[in-house]
Amino acid sequence: MRGEAVKFNIHSQPEFFKEVVKRVNNHFKKTNKSKHANASMVFKTIFMLCLYFIPFILIATNGVVSLGGNLAMWALMGLGMSGIGLSVMHDANHGSYSSNRNTNHIIGLVINFVGGYHINWKIQHNVLHHSFTNIQGLDDDISKSGLLRLSPHQQKKPIYKYQIFYAPFLYSILSLYWFLGKDIEQTIKYSKENLVQEQGISVLRATIEIFFTKMGYLGLFIVIPMLFASVAWWQSLLGFLLMHAISGQILALVFQCAHVIQETDFFEPNESGTMENSWAIHQMRTTANFANGSKLFSWFIGGLNYQIEHHLFPNICHVHYKEISKIVKSTAQEFDVPYIHHKTFFDALKSHFRALNQLGIGVV
Fold it and tell me: Tens-of-pLDDT digits for all 364 residues of the chain?
């Protein structure tokens, strides 16, 4: 398995994580709250699913007949797709939506209706990204097949000095690439590393599931609109691309602003495979919050502007992140541990694109 030889330094401020875990657990005991979803989370789930599927139904049944109306529906679907990815399937595939594994599994499968595949997502996100955040060669989130330089430990290339300009385009095709090729590439790569098999599924079964889910997605969201929508086929295709452009841009920027900014650190293992910090301290140095004062923004993106809390407690549903952030921040200050935070999303965006520019021109 990738990263099996990497060890975090257990002697690096271990008392911080012990204390913050104890305080967070005490919070839930005192308030008598579940760490999982509540009524507001159920409402959000229904809302995001409706935001995605109701516009599609209107498109397929000619509830809207103009090109402008169709494109508006596809745009709403782009928001719905983002909302499902950030606010619904994300918690479920982390196992934090419900205490019931079957409930998490069923809700987590909604990722297949937005063009992805749940097994590969769990490997890339849960296994690799959360375990090895911003570690060169281990975290696939900062490895973009040579198209972007997202870590100072990656090779410099002349093309990267322009990445601040072409990165937004790549972000806009993120979810489209996810649908068209990413899952195939990942299945081949992850099967060689035995990561697919460690999810309790054979490579053959994963391949078959990917084939049928992709064909189902293709038939549902491309063929049906082309056959039944009131607009020309190419206009339906244009709407489909618009949906993915909106979703890809939102998904990419939310996650990039949490890890690839000027203030976060990037690492690579030393010769013995030992990391500088303990796992928890590593997370605090590689992860950032942003726009914690914006309730609506936080609601829409599934609390992932509380990325620090998410990385320390991925087993807790995001509806609780705001509450526990006060505990995490005060504990970090007490133990002199970094707590990186941008007041607004715009501030985080500026930091991300400055980091992109610095990495691109080779300053870092």
Answer: 566 678 999 999 999 999 999 999 999 999 999 999 999 999 999 999 999 999 999 999 999 999 999 999 999 999 999 999 999 999 999 999 999 999 999 999 999 999 999 999 999 999 999 999 999 999 999 987 789 999 999 999 999 999 999 999 999 999 999 999 999 999 999 999 999 999 999 999 999 999 999 999 999 999 999 999 989 999 999 999 999 999 999 999 999 999 999 999 999 988 788 899 999 999 999 999 999 999 999 999 999 999 999 999 999 999 999 999 999 999 999 999 999 999 999 999 999 999 999 999 988 8
Judged by DSSP in three states, 153 sits in coil
Phi, psi of 340 (to 5 degrees): -80, 130
Nearest by Cα to 318 from 108, 111, 8, 41 = 41
In SS3 terms, 300-346 reads as HCCCCCCHHHHHHCCCCCHHHHHHHHHHHHHHHHHCCCCCEEECCHH
DSSP result, 45-109: HHHHHHHHHHHHHHHHTTS--SHHHHHHHHHHHHHHHHHHHHHTHHHHHHT-S-S-HHHHHHHHG
Closest CA to 322 of 337, 308, 333: 308
Q: Are 243 and 74 in contact (CB under 8 A)?
A: yes
Domain boundaries of the chain, sorted by first residue: 14-361
pTM of the model: 0.94
**Closest alpha carbon to 235 in 77, 115, 66, 80:** 66
What's the length of the chain?
Answer: 364
Strand 288-290 versus strand 340-342 pairing type: parallel
102-109: long-range contacts, CB 8 A cutoff, minimum separation 24: 107/45
Judge residue 19's burial from the number of C-beta atoms within 10 Å of its C-beta, 0-12 exposed, 13-18 middle, 19 or more buried: middle
Beta bridge partners of 342: 290
- Phi first, then psi: give them for residue 185, nearest 5 degrees: -60, -45
100-139 CB burial, b ≥16 within 10 A, e <16:
eeeebeebbebbbbbbbbbbbbbbbbebbbbbbbbbbbbb
Residue type, 24: V
